[in-house]
Amino acid sequence: MKNWLNTLALTVSVITAGLLAIWALLAMTGMMKIYSVPTNAMATFLSKGDHIIAERFSLLGEMPERGAVVTFTTEGIKSPYMSHSPPVIYIKRLIGLPGDRLEFKGDILHVNDKPVSEYFDANGITYQPLMSLAPGKSVTVPKDHLFVMGDNSGNSSDSRYWGPLPVENLRQKYWFHLKHGPPMKEENQQH
């Protein structure tokens, strides 16, 4: 019995060490990363204090789909509304792909003349028409760019302010929650 327990303990230790080594390798290469969400710009899907895992595997050679929640760097974004130096990582929802035309019709965000809800589950999300998507304005997403917005769009610095995001700035795609943060509180800081 003692030999069986020793063998089991050794097997568990080897498997654990192997998994930790794989996780370290994936983290070092940027294929997986743990993030702590710093703001409520993506609330209620992601709230300040949530801890999530994002992965890069599904982005290799593939364009993410509309509705995907993605991480990206602010590096190279030139706008008076983007003042981060050094660059930081943001997390937003992908709304528009290259060539898409975005506009508000009434209070509803449309992509290619269809309500955004026809592309992904936007239940509980109310996007606000601001800046480049103010009432009466439309945006066509340029080649090699994406249009991203925070779900809590009244409290989100996003493509409406600083323009379409270069595809090369994408880093990872949301995979799952590790831990939910405290209940959401109103805040004035946008990210």
Account of the 3D structure:
This protein has 191 residues and is of the alpha+beta class. The radius of gyration is 20 Å and the shape is elongated. It has 2 helices and 11 strands; from the N terminus they run αβββββββββαββ. 28% of the residues are buried. The chain starts with a helix and ends in a 12-residue tail after the last strand. It has a 7-stranded antiparallel beta sheet. Strands 7-6-5-8 form a 4-stranded antiparallel beta sheet, with no helix packed on it. The chain has helices at residues 2-28, 159-162; strands at 32-36, 51-55, 69-73, 89-96, 101-105, 108-111, 114-115, 138-140, 145-149, 165-166, 170-179. It has 2 domains: 1-30; 31-179, Umud Fragment, subunit A.
Keywords:
single chain, 191 residues, alpha+beta, Umud Fragment, subunit A, 2 domains, 7-stranded antiparallel β-sheet, 4-stranded antiparallel β-sheet, 11 strands, 16% helix
Order of helices and strands: HEEEEEEEEEHEE
Fraction of residues in helix: 10-25%
| Total count of strands | 11
Instruction: Round the Cα radius of gyration to an integer and report it.
Output: 20 Å
The CATH class of the largest domain is Mainly Beta
Determine the number of helices (DSSP H or I, runs of at least 4 residues).
2
What is the CATH T-level topology of the largest domain?
Umud Fragment, subunit A
